[in-house]
Specification:
Number of domains: 2
InterPro entries: LnmK-like_bifun_acyl/decarbox, LnmK_N_HDF
GO molecular function, one term: acyltransferase activity
Organism: Streptomyces nogalater
Protein name: LnmK family bifunctional acyltransferase/decarboxylase
Helix content: 10-25%
CATH class of the largest domain: Alpha Beta
Radius of gyration: 20 Å
Strand content: 25-35%
CATH superfamily of the largest domain: Hotdog Thioesterase
CATH topology of the largest domain: Thiol Ester Dehydrase, Chain A
Order of helices and strands: EEHEEEHEEHEHHEEEE
Keywords: Acyltransferase, Transferase
């Protein structure tokens, strides 16, 4: 097409000296918006990166018994460096992603991603790797960061998504992967969330409770929430929880426009189980507001199977409300 640089429409991929996988991609409609499309894209990058560096095809993996095995998401964290957040990406943005995999034994891996917008006319920086300290202690303000902790799982019995069991592919290589410093392990964070039902400390004196309890029921939508192998898609948890939080928001008399205008500074989600296609989910909700800055809030969701009370996920968001008056509707 005249006037179109077709190279902009195709991703470029490279390997950095530290083993990171870099990509230069154009943001397309299927990977942005106020929904789960962005996290779904990051999940694909995780599977691609693990496949690249670990010698296995995560999209067609089987264990030593020939059973399909899946690189399931156990912990997903999205952190803004300050100026870039998921809702800030739109059609045509040129972004550079850097993804690095860390070893967690024979059945788990952790992948860190750094995402930055490349200004028009600027060049990518393919030599740059990704050190874990950047994610945890030295985030760049113009970058977005994602942490994925994944476990290999397979079904324990056919036709059910309950009772998934650990099972790594026979060709999964991990001994060569760098180890994440113990101080940066996510296990303490998701362990506490699993035990207490939140990543937030409700006793923190800097935060006051805004919503003590709210509850939403959600029948799984088989036309949207189930992936190609019959599991509740990991990114669907994001949209299901976001929809429940929108109802909590509206129950406070707030408008949908202001919900869309929020900035998500930190989003943590721990997956504890999967659900069958005919399940009904119960989502228990709470929220807090920072005492000295009411424009900052934390929202919490605990997702359960309504029939069995089995806990499926714990999620906490740290958000900033846009506008000079955080209490405005």
């Amino acid at each position: 097409m005249p006037g179109t640089d077709n190279a902009l429409l195709r991703p470029e991929v490279w390997r950095a000296p530290d083993g990171s996988v870099g990509r230069l991609v154009t943001v397309k409609p299927g990977m942005c918006g106020h929904n789960s499309l962005f996290v779904g894209q990051v999940g694909d990058w995780t599977w691609e990166t693990v496949s690249e560096v670990c010698g296995t095809d995560a999209f067609n993996a089987v264990d030593d018994r020939g059973r399909p095995t899946y690189l399931s998401f156990y912990y997903f964290r999205v952190r803004s460096g300050g100026r870039l957040h998921p809702g800030g990406l739109t059609f045509g943005d040129r972004i550079e992603t850097t993804s690095r995999v860390f070893g967690f034994g024979s059945e788990s891996v952790l992948t860190l991603h750094r995402i930055r917008r490349v200004p028009p006319g600027a060049e990518p920086e393919p030599g740059q790797g990704l050190e874990p300290d950047e994610f945890f202690a030295a985030r760049q303000p113009d970058c977005l960061y994602v942490q994925n902790f994944n476990r290999w799982v397979t079904r324990s019995h056919a036709g059910s998504n309950e009772g998934l069991i650990s099972s790594a592919p026979a060709d999964f290589r991990h001994a060569h992967l760098p180890r994440l410093p113990a101080a940066h392990s996510p296990r303490a964070a998701y362990g506490a969330a699993r035990a207490h039902g939140t990543f937030h400390d409700p006793a923190d004196p800097e935060w006051e409770e805004l919503v003590a309890a709210d509850e939403v029921e959600y029948p799984i939508d088989i036309t949207r929430d189930i992936n190609g192998v019959g599991l509740l898609y990991f990114a669907s948890y994001f949209s299901i929880i976001d929809g429940a939080m929108l109802k909590m928001w509206r129950n406070q008399g707030r408008t949908g426009r202001r919900f869309l205008d929020r900035t998500v500074l930190d989003h943590q989600l721990c997956y504890l189980g999967n659900a069958d296609a005919d399940s009904v989910l119960r989502i228990r909700l709470r929220s807090w507001r920072r005492r000295d800055d009411p424009a900052e809030e934390r929202w919490n969701a605990v997702v359960e199977d309504a029939a069995s009370d089995r806990r499926l996920a714990v999620c906490t968001l740290h958000v900033r409300l846009e506008g000079s008056n955080a209490a405005a509707q």
